[in-house]
Amino acid sequence: MVNEIAMDKLVISVDIPSGVSSDTGKVEGAAIKADKTITFVFPKNGFFLNDGPSYIGEWKAVDISVPPSIIKDLKLELPKLMTETLAKEFLPVRPAYGHKGTFGHVLVLGGSRSFVGAPIFTAKAALNAGAGLVTLGVPESIYPLAAIQSPESLFLPLYEEEGHFALNAIDQIKQSLNKIKAIAVGPGMSRFTGGEEWMRSLFSSLNGQPIVVDADGLYLIKNSLDIVRQYQGNVIFTPHPGEMAVLLNLSVNDVEKNRIEIANNFAKENNIYLLLKGHRAIIASPDGDIYINPLGHDALGKGGSGDVLTGIVSAFLAQGASPIQALVSASYLHAKTGEEKAKTLSHYGVNPPDLIDGIREELKRLT
Fold first, then answer.
1. So where are the chain's domains?
2. Helices 241-248 & 259-270, crossing angle to 10 degrees?
3. Beta-carbon neighbour count of residue 319 at 10 Å?
4. Cβ of 309: how many Cβ atoms within 10 Å?
5. What is the pLDDT of residues 124-179, one digit of tens each?
6. Residue 66 and residue 177: Cα distance in Å, rounded?
7. Which among 78, 119, 245, 291 could disulfide-bond with 111, CB atoms 3.0 to 4.6 Å apart, if both were Cys?
């Protein structure tokens, strides 16, 4: 009844909108759709899960004399909320005397005959997020197209078969690893015969650099998680719900119903850092730390947005950020950029190049 008669009136919920689960965000039946929610001490998990974001409106946590130390006293395992302050704190430091070598070299491995743009978005985003150098490793047949679109990148044309990476391309990659500080693999790479062996060979060839696995790189490594667990460097997976479902042989609906638990368990079991994309991204570490991003909306719901995020994460890693620092700062920056761009371009019209340009604007504001 409240929802029906609200019209242009302001609906304020106290603690949580009635009918919304504080733990899961699920609405079972009727629930109040609030314009604002005034909650106590801390936000609830349900504010950021399932139906929650659609029902809480703007939210604010207020003091009712319950000390924050209650978390430790009651041994509560609560996720941490990504804030602008935290994102800024976690940004890699840029010394004034730095040069291109100081700020790290990112190697982006991706692209195929059908997907030329994805690795270019990743490379451009990495450069706009501060990487000193970015090398694009792409199948040799698409190298001319990529070079025209990203002249600011270095290039590593790689052996291919039928428009995809060939297994002997790994030998070329090995020769280029000495100065590489971070690797991104998967954007636009496609699924191809021999791809699983290619990914296993890649992991076996690396020198312990942090590696971000995205897109079809996730599909091609899903049956080789043993080599991921044994890798001597930090591994970061950045799946959207569909890719997470493939990794776990679940339905997308199963993933979306239990986002925090699924992300937490997968990160611990496979000794990786996980960024589970979607409305209200979740970051999980192998140590059990969980972060939730309170920002982001449908403006990011477009092909290529994830490739941009992969580039930002890789750039921060190359500049010396830890995996958690890189993921938190990149996720917050990516979501905030999408929100800001939508104000001028509409929720319909934000494209990957807009996000890439917006990275610089948001970094300027943050710093």
1. 2-73, 85-366
2. 50
3. 24
4. 29
5. 999 999 999 999 999 999 999 999 999 999 999 999 999 999 999 999 999 999 99
6. 52
7. 119
C-alpha 312/C-alpha 307 separation (Å) is 9
pLDDT confidence of residue 70: 86
User: Which region, left, alpha or beta, applies to residue 244 given φ > 0 means left and ψ of -120 to 50 means alpha?
Assistant: alpha
- Count CB neighbours of 191 within 10 A: 13
pLDDT grade for 74, boundaries at 50, 70 and 90: confident
- Assess whether pLDDT exceeds 80 at residue 349: yes
How sure is the predictor about 362, in pLDDT bands with cuts at 50, 70 and 90?
A: very high
Class of domain 85-366: alpha beta
Give CA 24 to chain center in angstroms. 22
pLDDT at position 75 over 90: no
Dihedral angle of Cα 300, 305, 314, 264, to the nearest 10 degrees: 60
Question: Has this prediction a pTM greater than 0.70?
Answer: yes
| Average pLDDT estimate for 173-200 | 96
3-state secondary structure 97-124: CCCCCCCCEEEEECCCCCCCHHHHHHHH
Judge contact between 27 and 53, C-beta under 8 A.
no
Mean residue pLDDT across the chain: 95
CA distance 220 to 199: 7
Query: Is-contact 291 326, C-beta < 8 A?
Result: no
- Retrieve residue 191's tokens: 């699924």
